[in-house]
Amino acid sequence: IETDLFANIAPGVSSRFPIKLRNPFSKPLKFDLKVSANTGLPIRIKPKSQMVELGEKEMKEIEASIELQSSDDGEEGFRDWTIFTYVDPGKVNLSQTKDIPKSVAGLEGNVAAKSYRPIRNTIDFEKSAGGLKRQAAALAFVEYYSEKDQSITLGASADWWMECYVNGVLAYSTMDDGNGGGYTVLDHTFRVDVKKGKNLIAIKVLSGAAGWKLLLGGPKDLEKAKGISIDQIEIQLESNGKLLAKEFVKMNITTPVPLLKKGDWNLSIDTWDSVPSEIELTEIQVTNLYDKHPDQSRWWQGDQDLSGRVWFRGDSEHLYIAVQSNDDYYQKGTEAKSLWKSDSLQIAFTKPGDMNFDEYTIGQIEEEVTVYKHKHRSGLKAGKLPANNQEIEARIKRSDKKTFYFLKVDRQLFGRGAVSLNLLINDNDSGEREQFIQWRPGLGESKDTSLWKTISLPNDR
Does residue 461 sit in helix, strand or coil? Predict the structure, then answer.
């Protein structure tokens, strides 16, 4: 049995899952191919079972489809939350909070409440806030109704530090050592006393270096989780009740990329600007290289100084990426190798789970749109790419203090299925690189593909 490293699955769409079967014997084989999911997720697999015949030494590829369907949002009583992001933890006292507040003190004024319904018991503060800064504080509140006075068990996990209060009493804390390994409701289990009627559960979470999430489950969620193994696809080959082979493939939940519609790629800048984007790049994703410098003019000056938006589209042959950089001053490069020091776009791609990657910088030298390849995993070698290269076709347009990058990327770089990627926008306002704004950690300050985002491409789902 041969498969991809991961079973890449996009919510709400059918994802292709190719399985290669090889008969090593000098005689024909006939067997049942069975595909199942070991997970608590609502997964639909087609077909679950089929008869396969292989001639001697023959190899055959069988294609199944896997779909992540909509699910419930955890145990009743833990579904409807109120959250706050980027709060000032020094001005919030959860031991004295008796009701869910409508606003709390933030780092820059008050923060308004947001309603939130978890997916798989998980609250994604990073997604709600639009970005991530290490050790940023968030609050989550839920009202739990009990039929009687009793003691119940809760399970929680956080990225990365948390403390939980029940009716103003500290019930559990990981503030000293952080979450530790794993990320399930079984990571940290603890007993809490609840009274008959309404109980207020309040949790503070501090973000880690690569995430900002809370996972919490009640007693029924814990019982369900105890019978679940790691999210994986199981493949079995059976003949007359005898197991011939077995393989497990880890599931990787991905973000689906919309299919490119005819004419989309030639839309005007104003039209793209009016279309909802897949990514918003905001202040919390800015890394300023001079934030400790006494000259405040070199600090981040607001959204007009550096912010951005990103759109993805795809078809069977290409991944299309549009990036809008809001930057009040545009500095072109002088040489291809150091293009990243000027106003430019850096982007990198790899297969999920692969630590090697292809990395590029796209910018302008005089009037020439230049693509420089820094790291090579596949395709062309590192260096300045020719204008007619087949890997990345790039266009740059500057309009009203906004720079638009349009990329057409050959999918042969990463193959079919899913791709892990990351990107950032470099900003040079004073003759040298002052800051950058990046989608995910692991590209600008370090090179770590495990922190990147995985997306699922059309025509491979």
Answer: coil
